[in-house]
Amino acid sequence: MNRSLSKHILWGLVSGLAMVVTVGLAWAQAPATKEAPAKPAPAKPAAAKPKAAKPAKDGKESDIESAVKRFEGEGRDIFQKRCEIVEVCQLKPGMMVADVGAGTGLFTRLFAPKVAPGGKVYAVDIEKKYIQYIEQTCRQQKLANVVGVVCPADSTKLAPKSVDLVFICDTYHHFNHPEKNLASIREALRPGGRLVVVEFRKEKGVTPDWVMKHVRPDREMLIKEITQAGFKLVDEPQVMKMQQVYRFERK
Ligand SMILES: C[S@@+](CC[C@H](N)C(=O)[O-])C[C@H]1O[C@@H](n2cnc3c(N)ncnc32)[C@H](O)[C@@H]1O
Question: CA 140, 97, 197 angle in degrees (round to 5)?
């Protein structure tokens, strides 16, 4: 073997050894198995936002949101005593009920399960946005026996003899046409049907000034108007300090 051939053989052996060492080192540093790409952390479920009371686009409180706070807040006597008020209505399955001046549906949603199966609650209000809100919240709560009615200011728009009970809470004093409203309510009631009215008391020296100014009829005026419209006063259950509950029957 001449000298140049043995140099080539030696050089080949050295480079082969170097390659084996490099590959070996690289293999030793690599992970044993191919790691799966890291899974993104599961997103936290979004806080359950009330779908119905969306804030207004400019970030301000919407009309509905502020109405829900006013009508369905613990600061309201009527809200605190809502279960007692529902009891006074003596609802039974199969009854047809109208919540006239339903607002955000506080009572409509409490009445609906009480008259099921077979009964219905008509949520009646002059404000379309309230009726839409009631329909939406009833769908969310799977209350299938609620019918929304947007009415004019002087009528319930209910069919004659279609309901067993009309409920008017914190709304009678809003009636600017009480004679027409009462005629429409009487027409919607079946013979012997009942009318439950919840209204502010108006007593000098006891009732706050804003109520004295805001509320039109006092007890005597309210009873007079309603009895003259063809109703008989049955009783006045004591439920709240500031408001009075009146139970009437259609004559
Ligand atoms: C103070 S809120 C009471 C809402 C509900 N009854 C409650 O107690 O939570 C009065 C409601 O009566 C409605 N209203 C006013 N005048 C009305 C009328 N003539 N017929 C029907 N609803 C009326 C208003 O739009 C409002 O929703």
Answer: 110
